[in-house]
Design a protein that fits this description.
Blueprint: H1 3-24, H2 32-35, H3 54-73, H4 85-108
Length: 116
Amino acid sequence: MNLLTCVLLITATLSTVLAIISFWLPQMSPDPEKLSPYECGFDPLGSARLPFSLRFFLIAILFLLFDLEIALLLPIPWAIQLEHPLITFTWASSVLTLLTFGLIYEWSQGGLEWAE
């Protein structure tokens, strides 16, 4: 058997075994909240014109911002091999400082308080 056939056989077997286990393993105890079509906390049978809270979007945007920050700061360890690693470190530090000041400002304004 060549290597490609062996790898395909192992992956197919592993996928099949994990799919079968995933059907047998979970505990089936549905409650009314899990049986509803939406798990967002809104009544799906009510009016569709209810406004969303802006705080929900603020938290979502902050989450995306800090995810993006991690993606931008990830290549910094490899910047040591560049011609001018100090420039990369300076830009990364400025992005991190700007995001930190923005978070402090948002926190001081009370934008992160979920319940009033």
